[in-house]
Design a protein that fits this description.
By secondary structure, the chain is an alpha/beta fold. It has helices at residues 8-11, 33-42, 62-66, 82-90, 100-112, 179-185; strands spanning 20-23, 47-50, 70-75, 94-97, 116-119, 133-138, 141-149, 153-164, 169-170, 186-197, 216-219. The chain is built from 6 helices and 11 strands. Strands 1, 2, 3, 4, 8, 9, 10 and 11 form an 8-stranded mixed sheet that branches.
Length: 235
């Protein structure tokens, strides 16, 4: 049951070129900083990354874009990253923009064992091009819904505040964001945590992600926890 590995390099050692990865976080909050740094060091190429956004130019997934390690981004938000925008407009990077709720639900569907979900988001827009739609009666009114497939990712990389050696995870405040959903969804889920404790030390009532979803866990180091846009009130 002990799922601990020494560090990020050991945790991601079998991630290979052209694999699909899920990366938790929202903006720069709750991102797997150590795993991303390890991927940069490893130099794997042709990655498809599923994440809410792509960080900023010199941090987060932006580091992988800078070194041309990402082939495709599946995300909800393009802003805050000039290199992301440049690669998108030049045709160097394939981008699949997805409504944020749809992104979250497609992650959740994997954990629930559902092959697809129906959503009204994106109906009648470019998001729906080439996708199956179906009509359902909702509150007595016929509405059209878009079918979206559950994701299929080789690995999910998530970051938590605390975890134990069995892989149980606790997230802190808004850093919870996409992490629990993606932890459910990877064929192999790797969790990095700020504090790693022996099994049994976490209060079961506070656990957000049960260890059954986590395959490897390690204690991370040197977290920067950057803020995308620092805003202060004028005096």
């Amino acid at each position: 049951m002990n799922k601990t590995v020494v560090n990020a390099d050991e945790a991601i050692k079998d991630i290979q070129d052209n694999m699909t990865l899920m990366l938790g976080g929202f903006g720069l909050c709750g991102i797997p900083e150590n795993c991303i740094a390890a991927l940069v060091r490893k130099g794997v190429k042709g990655l498809t990354c599923i994440a809410n956004n792509a960080g900023v130019d010199d941090f987060g997934i932006g580091l992988l874009l800078k070194t041309r390690q990402v082939k495709k981004m599946i995300s909800s938000y393009v802003g805050e990253n000039a290199e992301f925008e440049r690669q998108l407009l030049s045709g160097e990077l394939e981008v699949d923009l997805i409504p944020q709720g749809t992104l979250a639900t497609r992650c959740m569907a994997v954990g629930y064992g559902m092959p697809a979900v129906y959503t009204p988001a994106g109906v009648g827009t470019e998001v729906a091009i080439g996708k199956e739609t179906r009509k359902f009666i909702v509150d007595g009114v016929e509405k059209e819904f878009l079918m979206e497939y559950a994701f299929d990712a080789h690995f999910a990389l998530v970051k938590a505040w605390k975890g134990d050696t069995h892989g149980n995870l606790i997230f802190r405040e808004t850093a919870r964001n996409f992490n629990p959903l993606m932890a459910m969804a990877g064929r192999i889920t790797i969790a990095e945590v700020e504090e790693l404790v022996p099994a049994g030390e976490l209060n079961p009532d506070y656990i957000h992600t049960p260890g059954i979803y986590v395959h490897r866990i390690f204690q991370g180091v040197n977290y920067e926890k950057r803020i995308e846009q620092r805003t202060v009130r004028k005096r």
